[in-house]
Amino acid sequence: MNYEISLLTTMAIAVMFALSLNLITGFCGQISLGHATFQGVGAYTAAMLGKAGWPFLATLPVAMVLAGLLGVIVGLASLRVRADFLAITTMGVGFLFVGIVRQQEFLGGELGISSIPDHGLGRLGFMALALVMCVGVAALSMYIKRSWMGRVFNGIAEDEDTMRVLGIDVPRYKLAAFAMGTALAGMSGAFYTYHLNFIGAESFGFVESITVLSMVVFGGIGSVPGVIIAAALLSVLPAWFQVIGDYKLLVYGGLLFLMMRFSPSGMAGLAMRLSTTKLLPKEGRS
Amino acid sequence: MLAIELIAQGLIQGSIYALVALGLTLVYGLLRILHVAHAALFTLGGYVGVLVCNASGNLPLGFFCAALVSGLGGVVMFRLAYQPLLNQPPYVALIASIGLFIASEEAFRIIFGAQGMSFNTPSLEQQFSIGGLQFKLAELLVMLSTAAIIGVLAFLQSRTRVGIACQATVSDPQMAQSFGISLRQVRDINFFVGSALAGFAGVWVALLNNLVEPTMGSVPSYKALAIIVLGGLGSVPGTLTAALLLGVIEAFGTIYLGGILDRNAIAFAFLIAVLMVRPQGLFARS
User: What ipTM is given for this predicted complex?
Assistant: First the structure.
């Protein structure tokens, strides 16, 4: 039973994390190759505060605020650089974060931070809280997607210049997307810390940023249900793939490539295509 | 004296960066794709170089085979992976490329083993002393051959029909096509040349470290992306300058900032600083 609880918690954290990136990349169209940085900021904040004697629930909001603050700073960069330049800038932020943390003694340096105090919720309670937060983030995503703000995000993703011409304050919306997305990533980071009881700079590096981006793209960029399913599946894939052990990353990379090659709109697109194939008569398909 | 030595070390590293990033910039200029899997061809070149050289005892043959195999590998990669994705949004090709890179890194590990391979008889190890500085012969030859290759390429690009066709395609694909230039051939040639350069660089790195390993491509994969962005995406002179500049800055940074930041962080701190001042990179094309 413990194994299943742990697996579900892992899943919930991954879904939260992926949905937080979906706000920025999926809704607002700002590609980020450094999203793990914000999870890292949240995780380190929770770890430091937890070690200082703060209860778990009190570390959550602080983790969110700090991650969100850094997110706004990176968001300011997104006002300056666009598209491919932004992708590489965010990647740079990721390397900068890992590089700085690894050299700081008080952040645990190369060794990371271990023996983080217990959250005091019990395994089941912790899982339940993670799941509740996860549902909360999903509901928030759905709400934002349908709101006025969501429509503006979509407009920015489609054609930023037209939105400017329409008199929309594009920078403000971009910053809002970054602030919300990165704060939620910070929250997932705090959960991560207390779930694993150990963190190191490497856990929030380039590979993790790519992994979370793959979850979003795999699910179907911008699609909330698609991203949830993709994040849940991909986060437990390594555990299931024990069978194929050595070939884990080969399969992972291969899947990522094949999905992009044959269904660039992810699982959401795949599902859409399958359902329209069934519903529409043959000549109705384009 | 230390300063001169650091500049020399930086230029050696920068030459390697330049060889790898040049191919990446050719691809970007033509197709607007951030081609992460380029680094897999770099690793492939390293392996082919070591294998051929160990089997035949002939180093130049090793270089030739490495460039040839990597070049062909690049064309195959383009035909199978990128060509069908050219009409998709740019992140699709980026993620596909990342998937391809992860999978091929694993494939190298599975085929050639995790511990890497070395030359049976390391060559070009002779020490030279120029102006009081000690160099290995290989280090001198890296710089010389990079300069030679770039010179030859610049000549070919500006003086031959094929080179001019490539330039025309980069600046206006439709116009070039209507003048009878085959887009397909130009793309094949670009991928071949760019990938051959990466393979060539792979052998040099193998020689300098006397080691090829499955993960040798991971640093060039993102460092080269940073370089082409720094150089203004798609600008060849910009890429060269950025590569050499980054090599030198890393050499100085590791000495003077090593306590606060690691090598990657120094490179990316510099990248972010430049982009905030000049969002279009150092040498943007209009």
Answer: 0.82
